[in-house]
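This is your field. Have a critical look at both lines of this record:
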Amino acid sequence: MYLHGRRPRIARTALVLLVAGALLAAGCTPRASSHPSLRLGIAYGDRLVWMSDRDLAASLDDAVAVGARWVRADLSWQDVQPDGPDRYRWGLFDRVVTAAEARGLTVLPVLAYTPAWARAGHCADSKCGPADPEAFAAFAGAAAARYTRRGIGTWEIWNEPNIPAFWHPAPDATTYATLLRATSRALRRVDPSAKVVLGGLSAAGTEGAVSAPDFLAAVLAHGGKGLFDAVGYHPYTYSRLASARVPRGTEWDGINRAHPSLHGVLAAHGMPDTPVWITEFGAPTDGPGHVTEQRQALIAADVVRTAADTPHVGALIWYTDRDPGTDTSTVENFFGLRRADGRAKPAFDALRRAVTALRHRAREATAGSVGADEQPLIHTYSGDRGQGRRR
């Protein structure tokens, strides 16, 4: 996630009306959707692996409670192989997979983050791209060999590689394309049916970033076609709704309405049917540029309907489950559906109601003929967000 430019807050009177609308919208049936099989989930970043058994269970129980079917979580190379290429610490992620399996949740691992031994000599942070893409690919292949038999068949390759906060020292689409090629091949050697999501691109406006459409176009220009099955995207729109239409456009418009757009780039390269997966979306309720808890609830209800009604969107992942802290100097602590003390925010119930309504509409539309793996799903990401996120 990224720290985008902040927008003026909504006037108090207008906000009251919008909050009332949120409570109504959360429980109403969405309009007919062009994507009744929208995947929905919750994302957790690098947090689940470090939780106690009790906190891990509570976090995944929240995913089930809001109607999630998927969980997006970092499978960090740095966590698994901190000591070198010949030693693995799978136990951290094994716990997450076991807990998810027990609740019928599918895990979407984010393969990312370089251990010290695998970085270029000048780079001292896990957000550095690997010095040797084949070493990262070997890690990915080992992960596939371990987890494919446990029901994991979809993999996201890195997180926000188009912004400096997550690809040091600066975004490089050519280097990322090389990494994507090596990693996709490694995954598919183990599992020929493996699905690959191009690492969730930030709808960034930060200094040194590359726009999501430009980054995607560059990856495709450097041989990226055929290496992925979906494009990850993080179109945070707060304080606006995802459904908002404004003259200058919003981050959501980058999916298929802006010029250029992600879908436009895909179509230009002969990939018009490749979906966009929203692997992070949310709004903070404290810190600089935050929204109110009531506004967050409205945003949550609105994005479920909007994602279902947006052509080419195949998944929606809400960020995040629970606030990791209370320091108000950063918004990174406040994207949760719950406060740090565990109390649910209004968005928790708003999201649950919106998902229930969407799933009910999908079942009516298909008259019970849709398979379990095609039912609507929800992802929420409770990892650190943007430059302040713990990865």
Observations:
- Confidence is low (pLDDT under 50) at residues 2-35, 370-391.
- Strands lie at 39-45, 70-76, 106-112, 154-159, 195-202, 230-234, 276-281, 313-318, 379-381.
- The radius of gyration is 19 Å.
